[in-house]
Amino acid sequence: MAVDYAVIVLYLAGMLAMGWWGMRRAKSKSDFLVAGRRLGPAMYSGTMAAIVLGGASTIGGVGLGYQYGLSGAWMVFTIGLGLLALSIFFSARIARLRVYTVSEMLDLRYGGSAGIISGIVMWAYTLMLAVTSTIAYATIFDVLFGLDRTLSIVLGGVIVVAYSTLGGMWSITLTDMVQFVVKTIGVLLLLLPIAVIRAGGFAEMRAQLPDDYFAPLGIGGQTVFTYVLIYSFGMLIGQDIWQRVFTARGDKVARLGGTAAGTYCLVYALAGAVIGTAAKVLYPHLGSPDDAFATIVRDALPVGLRGLVLAAALSAVMSTSSGALIACATVANNDIWARVKRIAELRGRGRDQERNEAQDQDQGQEHDEVRGNRAFILLMGVGVIAIAIALNDVVEALTLAYNVLVGGLLVPILGGLLWKRGTGAGALAAIAVGGLTVVGLMTALGVLANEPIYYGLLASLLTYVLVSLATKPTDAAVLAAWRERLAGAPEQEAPEPPPVGVAAGTSGDTGR
C-alpha cells in the first residue's frame, strides 16, 4: 500500500498548493466569490461537473448499481438532467444577472421582499450539503489509512477549508479541474473497464444476475419521479450550482459548457451503475451496498492504480464539499449577516443619514470584501466539521436539506424567471407555505417519505399564484431594472440588500 499512500499524499499536497496559488489571484470580491466571472468553456465544464458529482454520485451511485443494477443510475442521471435543463433554458439569464447569490436574484426580481427568508433557507441547505460531503471523508480515509471516524473527518475537512479559505473560488476552480481529470481517469477509464472484465463481461453479468438488474425502471417508477423532483429541480435553484454559473465568461460559455457538463454526468451515472452491477457479481453478499466501491477498488485494481482510483473518490467528495462550503459562507455573509448588520445600524438614526453614510461607505468598502468572505469560509468550515463529527444519519440530513430547498424555493425562483405577474408577497408566502408543508409532512410521515416533496411543491405553487394575483403587481421600476439586467446590462455590483421594513417603491409588495 505504500505506493497507494504516496499517490494520495501527493494528491492532497497538490490541493493545498492550488489553494496557495489561487490566493494570489483573489484580489477582489468578484475574484474570490465567482473567479472574476472569467472562466472559459473548458474550465467551466470541468468545475461544474466536479461540483455536482460528489461522494453520493460516486460511492452512492456504485452502491445503487450494486443494489438495483443498471437502474441504479437514475439518481445521478437526474442530476445530469437537471444540469442540462439549467444550462439550456436558464443559465444565460442567470449569468447576465451579475449577482452573487440566489437571494440577490430574488431581491432584484421582487424588489427586496424575499431575500432574507430565502437566504436562511439556502444557508441551511448549503450547510447540510457541506456537512454530508464532509462526513464522507470518514469512509474514504478508513479504507486508505484505517483512521477512525473523527480523525478522518477532521483531516479531510481541514484540507478543504484550508484551500477554500486561501483562494476562494479561484482555488476551488483550480482544484476542481484537477479533481475532474482524476475522477475521469480513475472511474471512467480505469475502474469501469477493469470491473466489467473481472466480472466476466456483460454476458456473464446477465447470466449471474436477475433480469430486474437490467430493467430500465428496476429501481421503481415512483423512486425515479422523486429523484426528478429532488435532484433535477434542486440543480435548477441551488446556490452551489448558481455560484458556478456566475463564474462563466459569457452566455455561450454558461450554456455550452453546462450542457457538456450535464452530458458528462449522464455518462458518469451509467458508469457507476455498471461498476456496481459488476461488484454484485463479484461480491454478492456485502454487508452494505455502499461498501461496493471500496471493495472492488481494493480487490480488483493493482498497486498504484488503486491509489489513483481512491484519489478519484476523494476528489469527488472534496469538490462537492468545497463548493457547498463557499456557497454556505457566501449566503451567510452576503444574505444574512449583511442584512442583520444593516438593520442594527438603522436603529437610532434616520433614513436620510443612513443613505448618505451608505454612499460614503460604498466608495471604500472593497478593501475588506475578500477578508470578510475569507473569514466566513473559515467560520463556516469549522462549524461544518463540528456538525459532521456529531451527526450520524447522513441520508436523512441530505434529504431534509433538498426537500426544504425545493419545496420552499423552486416555485418563487422559477416563477420570477418565467412569470412577470409574480409578486414579492406571493414569493414570501410560497417560501413559507412550501417549506412548512415539507417540514410538517416529514415530521409526520418520516424524512425519507415521498409525500412531503409532492405536497410541498403543490402547496407552494398554489400559494404563489393565488397570493400574486391577489396583490398589486410588482412596481414597474423594479421590473424595468430586472428586464434590463436580464438583457445583459453592463456589469455592476448588485445593490446591497436593504433592511427589512423599508419600502422599496410604490408597489403593494412587502417592503425591504
TrEMBL record:
Residues spanning the membrane: 6-23, 44-66, 72-95, 116-140, 152-173, 180-201, 213-237, 258-283, 303-332, 375-394, 400-419, 426-447, 453-471
Species, as recorded: Streptomyces celluloflavus
Stretch list, region Disordered: 489-512
Bilayer topology: Multi-pass membrane protein
Entry-linked PANTHER family: SODIUM-SOLUTE SYMPORTER-RELATED, SODIUM/PROLINE SYMPORTER-RELATED
Keywords, comma-separated and alphabetical: Membrane, Transmembrane, Transmembrane helix, Transport
Localization annotation: Membrane
Family per similarity comment: Belongs to the sodium:solute symporter (SSF) (TC 2.A.21) family.
Keyword rRNA-binding on entry: no
Matching Pfam families: SSF (PF00474)
Name the record gives this protein: Sodium:solute symporter
Top-level taxon: Bacteria
